[in-house]
Amino acid sequence: MVNVGFSLNYGGEHLTFENEGKYVVDENLTITVKRREYSEFNACEWVLWFENNGSQNSKILSDINDCDI
After folding, report:
1. How far apart are CA 59 and CA 10, in angstroms?
2. 17 contacts: CB under 8 Å, gap ≥ 6
3. Would you tell me how many other CB atoms lie within 10 Å of the CB of residue 28?
4. What span, in angstroms and rounded, lies between the C-alpha atoms of 48 and 59?
5. Three-state SS letters, the chain
6. pLDDT tens-place string over residues 2-58
């Protein structure tokens, strides 16, 4: 199984994450990573969801690297 690594800048701060799961960055940003493996093809896919659950705007997301390998 390959680890899913991704990074981004959030409000000017560089953040790095690994593996699938749910990451609560702050009260205004939650990142969810879903991963699916296709072992018969030696391949996998993953999707990142960015969600604002807060009552205010989130900080600015930039430089999103959805595949840090």
Report:
1. 6
2. 5, 6, 7, 23, 31, 33
3. 17
4. 17
5. CCCCEEEEEECCEEEEEECCEEEEEECCEEEEEEEEEEHHHCEEEEEEEEECCCCCCCCCEEEEECCCC
6. 677 899 999 999 999 988 899 999 999 999 999 999 999 988 898 999 999 999 999
Token pair of 7 as six digits: 């990074």
Give Cα 55 to chain centroid, integer Å: 21
Model-level pTM? 0.86
**CA dist., res. 46 & res. 31, Å (int):** 13
Retrieve residue 22's tokens.
């749910």
Report pLDDT for 19.
86
Between strands 43-51 and 13-18, the pairing is unpaired
